[in-house]
Write the structure tokens for this entry.
Amino acid sequence: MNDKLNMMLITNNIDIAAYASACGVTRLFVDLEINGKYERQGHLDTVISHHSMSDVEAVNKVKGEAELLVRLNPYHIDSEQEINSAIENGADIIMLPMFRTIEEVSKFSELIAGRVKFIPLIETIDAANIVSDIVKIKGVSEVYFGLNDLHREMGCKFMFEPLQNGCIEALAKIATDARVPFGFGGIARVGEGMLPAELILSEHARLGSSNVILSRTFHRNSTNLDDLKMVMDLQVEVKKLLDSFNEHIFRKNEKITKDKLLLDETIAAIVNG
């Protein structure tokens, strides 16, 4: 059983980054992935970040106690240069997105060479099919299940459908058996979301997840600190999520079963619309 949940916030704004770290956000996320993203998501209601390597250096200077996670481009000819630059600029964790083969993960890990933590982002069916091999690769610190692209490739109607159909449970078991930490999806505020945050947290607790991304719904797409403070008390909302997670950690078996049933029923109702 995992009893710690890292909250990850995607931002390149140094004021938000510093504030978020002080409010209990444990991972700041600079997103440099751009290769192929417009082709995949340009027509969808998703966020395509416009962060730069200089943002890595800037956020690193204000990160406080938080770790700095940098998502790079999928493996390509300039991956070594990108990896070295990210590490030189202060990355504590590097994430590899949108891969399909074990060779891509192995080569990426070799280039990182144990200098920082390495998280492969499982967001394709091909990647999901080789998780049992991924968790054995030297240098892989954690894995993350990216529901945004994965659910689309699986032909699901709703991002959290892989929680209902057994996909994430099976992948989580592989990671847990290999003693590799994992996380999945995004989350809104407690009391909010089409699928309530509390239900998503119940599944994080049940499966043993240790990481979750704070969604744009969570912070209302705030792009500067004044806007963020106007729409929320970040410290309070982070604490609410952690308190809810901790409550779910210590549930009795009967409550775990009941919550899982409610989660599945809620997802089914959303899918069937």
